[in-house]
Amino acid sequence: MTIQSPDTALVLFSGGQDSTTCLAWALQRYARVETIGFDYGQRHAIELEVRPTLLSKLRALNPGWDARLGDDHMIDLSLISKISDTALTSNVEIAMQENGLPNTFVPGRNLMFMTVAATVAYRRGLNVLVGGMCETDFSGYPDCRDDTMKALQVALNLGMATRLKVETPLMWIDKAQTWELAQQEGGDTLVDLIRFDTHTCYLGERGDAHPWGHGCGTCPACALRARGYEQYVARKQA
């Protein structure tokens, strides 16, 4: 595939399904791609453990990707777990809150992620930030919404006198379409890599693999991933 843009990108790469799909998407489009991950005291820290293997396997999947994939940056944002009390940073039961949001919502997390990523991109000379935010199949998090990302892009560029672009390739697609996008960008090999080597489960469980991958099978993240995979398979077979 011919690279569509001379731009260079920094992908927010957690080690989960969405960010891995976004990384493949970016590697198909940008001349140079780097990755950034965050250790914020997340309950599902297993995602950080799978990241290096995922990056190695993505390099092996496509020689062009290997040539374009640059440095990985791991940032300590443990202060998030110190100033928040959520089901993603504490061992508490997942539940809905009085404000209508699940207690898996970590206030300010994506805002901080993008701000730190923009700072690293500035230093590294990268002009596109790629994130897996989505408001089609999501848990209602306000910091995943398109309006939030657009406003943040404006604020970041005003604050740093830059022309950074914020790209969210999953924003308007559902989880079945996210699986389809992975197939489009990297074929069945990438789909299988996402199924068995990424981690999305909020509880951090690996255990035996389901058809859609590893996880507890009951938390909101697993439910979205499983339902999307079932729909993806059904569409392929139709």
Automatic annotation (TrEMBL):
Binds 1 zinc ion per subunit. Pathway: Purine metabolism; 7-cyano-7-deazaguanine biosynthesis. The keyword ATP-binding applies. The keyword Lipid metabolism does not apply. Pfam families: QueC (PF06508). Zn(2+) binds at residues 201, 216, 219, 222. CDD domains: QueC-like. GO terms for molecular function: ATP binding; ligase activity, forming carbon-nitrogen bonds; zinc ion binding. Catalyzes the ATP-dependent conversion of 7-carboxy-7-deazaguanine (CDG) to 7-cyano-7-deazaguanine (preQ(0)). This is 7-cyano-7-deazaguanine synthase. It comes from Massilia aurea.
